[in-house]
Amino acid sequence: MTQASSQLSLNGSRLVRFLTELAVTDVEISHSHFAGRLGQLIDLADSITLSSAHSKLPTMAFEPATVATAAVTDKFMSIRTTIIRSVISSFDPAAGASRIKLPVPRAESPSDTAAAYEPYLRFYRAHQREFDLRIQRLQLQVREAATGLSPELAQLAALDSVLNDTLTLHTRKFFTAIPRLLGKHFEQLAGEYPPMELHERFCDDMQGLLLAEIETRLLPVLGLIEALNTHTDKNTYE
């Protein structure tokens, strides 16, 4: 998977499909639709920045470094596993103390669904902040490793950095909108189920959504990891 394809994979990700299945968004899942939307996000200034960065790639100075690709891949898998386990354990009281506390279900049906959803909103956003911190740090580490492996990977890392800066605001808006969309789903379920069943059903959906969001947030890093592994495999068999 190239870095460009990993960025574009957002439209076919499990996250978008999950949101669609919850009937809280009318996002059309098609490559042409997403590519068009992506083009609208990148304004003239962004286009100039990307074009300038791309034109400078062939003249970039390359400083080789000793990089253990397997260690970088292991780091990616370790962080991914840690984030996933953190989400899963936060939904399981038997898993022990969790830094992010799951809301306690109400004993009676909520008269104010917005107020009833507020603890779940804080819970979801707390996980999102954790995703931001861990995955941004991981992406920087993988990008740094790629920079020292080959001129081509150094160029890819530089382009990844510029592309990340260009799309950060837009992706942040996308992820920020998810808890709001989830609130619509909570409101739908609140009108259909008694309190305890509402809590259980909603938590199942919320956990699935968080896991899907992890997958989507990791796509750019996965693109770099696969590029590193392709480079290593190529050199191994040459």
Notes on the protein architecture:
It is a single chain. The chain is mostly helical. The protein has one domain. The protein contains nine helices and no strands. Helix 5 runs antiparallel to helix 9. The longest helix has 40 residues. It starts with a helix and ends with a helix. The N terminus is likely disordered.
Report the average pLDDT across residues: 79
Q: Please give the alpha-carbon distance between the first and last residues.
A: 21 Å
Main sheet overview: none
| Strand segment count | 0
Entry summary:
This protein is mostly helical and 238 residues long. The protein has helices at residues 3-8, 14-21, 31-41, 44-56, 69-90, 113-147, 151-190, 195-217, 219-237.
Feature tags:
238 residues; mainly alpha; 0% strand; disordered N terminus
Tell me the layout of helices and strands.
Blueprint: H1 3-8, H2 14-21, H3 31-41, H4 44-56, H5 69-90, H6 113-147, H7 151-190, H8 195-217, H9 219-237
Helix pairs in contact: 2-8, 4-7, 5-6, 5-8, 5-9, 6-7, 6-8, 6-9, 7-8, 7-9
